[in-house]
């Protein structure tokens, strides 16, 4: 679970319950959007459909975010995209890469 979220011009800082901190670039968060349009989706047989290869945009801003239940966040980007739901687990793993 996240204790706090701080939006900066080009990055977001997350402070986790365990006291650790993750700082992610806005461009990285946008590039790794988990929505079906951006990342594609798989059927029950594991076949992947769709997905759009997105180049990194260093100018992208996160305009705002919304908490989704007790498990994730939705980011609203300056390019109008807002479909991805980023689980806390996914966000933390992005920072560990």
Draw up the topology in text.
Blueprint: E1 2-7, E2 11-16, E3 21-25, H1 26-31, H2 36-39, E4 41-42, E5 48-49, E6 62-68, E7 72-77, E8 85-87, H3 88-96
Antiparallel strand pairs: 1-2, 2-3, 4-5, 6-7, 7-8
Percent strand equals 35-45%
- Order of helical and strand elements: EEEHHEEEEEH
Order of adjacent strands in the largest pleated sheet:
1-2-3
Q: How many separate helices?
A: 3
- Find the count of extended strands (DSSP E, 2+ residues): 8
**Shape call:** globular
Q: Helix amount, in percent?
A: 10-25%
CATH architecture: 2-Layer Sandwich
**In terms of per-residue confidence, which ranges show pLDDT below 50 for 5 or more consecutive residues?**
none
Would you give an account of this structure?
Helix content is 20%, strand content 38%. It has 3 helices and 8 strands. It starts with a strand and ends with a helix. The chain has a single domain (2-96), classed as 2-Layer Sandwich (NE0471 N-terminal domain-like). It is α+β, with helices and mostly antiparallel strands and 97 residues long. The chain is globular and about 40 Å long.
